[in-house]
Structures are given as C-alpha cells and as structure tokens.
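Hi everyone,

Forwarding the result from last night's run.
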Amino acid sequence: MKEIQCPQRFEPNRTDVSLFIAGGISNCPWWQKDLVALLEDTNLVLLNPRRSEYNMANLNLEEDQIKWEHEHLKKATAYVFWFPRETVCPITLFELGAVTTPGGKRVFVGTHPDYSRKRDIRWQMILRRPEIDVVNSLEKLAGQIKEWCATVIPS
C-alpha cells in the first residue's frame, strides 16, 4: 500500500490501482488514519485529501485543497466514501453525486450508524447504483475494498 496525501502529487502508471478516500475532514475525527491502517496489507495507492498539517492562515490552502481533490478524483481507479456522525459533509455529498453515474467507476460507501443523513444516502444508492452496498463501519468498508482488490490487482 502506498498513501499519497494532499498536497503530494500522484501521476498514475498503467499498473496502479488507486482509491480516493472521500469523507468528512472539518470538525471530524481523523478516521482516514483508521481506514489507511485497515488497508495497509493491500497493493492500493490511497489518495488521501486529509493533510497532516492544515494551516488556516494560508489563504491559498482552501483553493489548493479543492483543486487537489478535483484532480485526484479524476485520476482515481475507484472511490471510498465515509460519512462520520460529526457533520453532514456537504462537499462529500456533492462528490458522491458526481461520481455515482450508472456504469461508472467502482464506489464504496459507508456511514457511521449515527450519521444524520444515512437513510438518504442508502436510498440514493438504491436508486442510482443499486449494486453499491452501503455499510455502517470502517471495518466493513475495508472488507469490501479488499474483496474488490482480490479481483483487480494481480497477486
């Protein structure tokens, strides 16, 4: 497993299988560390928008963050979305809507059991991408990703 963290750049080669990690950042626990740890035994390239250091005094940082996410969403082989209970995650909802076109790339979705809009996400996935099984834990999400890895990454 290799983790690319914003603002690091990722230029994929034809053998890379990459996974964009989408979900709450502002006012949320660092759940991305837990997911990365759960996936450490894979051969994935993880594209993580969560920065080790986020200096709010840097006025260009927000713009740079948005550009990085936009570029790396396009580069990713697949996406994982996690909706924690601490916030509604409006940007993450926008990103989920943008990448869940029928017949599109592989998408994994999970919501914390106490996430306020979990029913909405489940229904949207049923209507738009019924093959997506929305789960309620990071462990189950990682399990889905590992099963998928076994089918797309040669041993």
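Strands lie at 2-5, 18-23, 45-48, 78-83, 106-111.

Cheers,
N.
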